[in-house]
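Supplementary notes for students who missed Thursday's class. We covered one full example, reproduced here. Read the sequence, then the structure, then the short commentary at the end.
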Amino acid sequence: MYVVKVLHGYIGKEGQRTREKDPGKLLVFTSKQESDQFAAKIGGRSKHVSKIRKD
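Structure (token representation):
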């Protein structure tokens, strides 16, 4: 499962940037290819859910 990281945050389920790191509140993609395509459209990068630091 992958999320899209943007400057100082992630893309939430509403499509807005958020600083939340809870995968339940983030827009989650099942494949890296889907995540990469979306990230390329908005200028972000894809990141695996397990790599999110939970500070």
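Commentary. The helical segments are 32-42. The longest helix spans residues 32-42. If anything here is unclear, bring it to office hours.
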